[in-house]
Amino acid sequence: MELKLGKRLLKMRKLFTILLMSVTALCFAQKKDYKLLNTDEKGTKFYYSFDKQTKDGFFTWQKISYTEKYNPAQESLEFYVEFKCSNKTQSDQITINNWRGAKPEIYREKSPFIPVKKNYLTYPLFEKHCK
């Protein structure tokens, strides 16, 4: 009887762990609603997707989509970027290389904050999200 109870508890614990991991994965899965920022002369498209506001800034996903003609190996590059409103700087948090016909490479190394110049593609995001 005691053995059956132990096995049952073990099965319940495994089931609970699987359920918890599934719910956590669903909660952290982000739906990216990309908006077009620009298209260059080669057809490369630049997008961003707002993620969240912070006390002194905001986070976005940025995506660069390449045409196969000009970049046959790489489909796109995605960045998770933190922006600081007080000094108009940004820092890449996550970088994802999406290769054509291969698994993506994900880098989770935070880069130092760098200034965003007025002529830079993402500078208008400061005007939109810094209040």
Strand fraction equals: 35-45%
Q: How many domains, as an integer?
A: 2
Strand tally is 7
Spans where pLDDT lies below 50 across 5 or more residues: 19-28
Task: Characterize the biggest β-sheet.
Answer: 7 strands, antiparallel
Q: How would you describe the shape?
A: flat
Describe this structure in words.
By secondary structure, this protein is α+β, with helices and mostly antiparallel strands. The chain folds into 2 domains: 30 residues; 95 residues. Helices cover 25% and strands 39% of the residues. The chain has 2 helices and 7 strands. Strands 1, 2, 3, 4, 5, 6 and 7 form a 7-stranded antiparallel beta sheet that branches. β2 and β3 form a beta hairpin. It is flat and about 70 Å long.
Set down the secondary structure blueprint.
Elements: H1 2-28, E1 35-39, E2 45-54, E3 57-65, E4 74-84, E5 89-99, E6 105-107, E7 114-115, H2 124-129
Summarize the structure.
The protein has helices at residues 2-28, 124-129, and strands at residues 35-39, 45-54, 57-65, 74-84, 89-99, 105-107, 114-115. By secondary structure, the chain is of the alpha+beta class.
Keywords, separated by commas or semicolons:
131 residues; alpha+beta
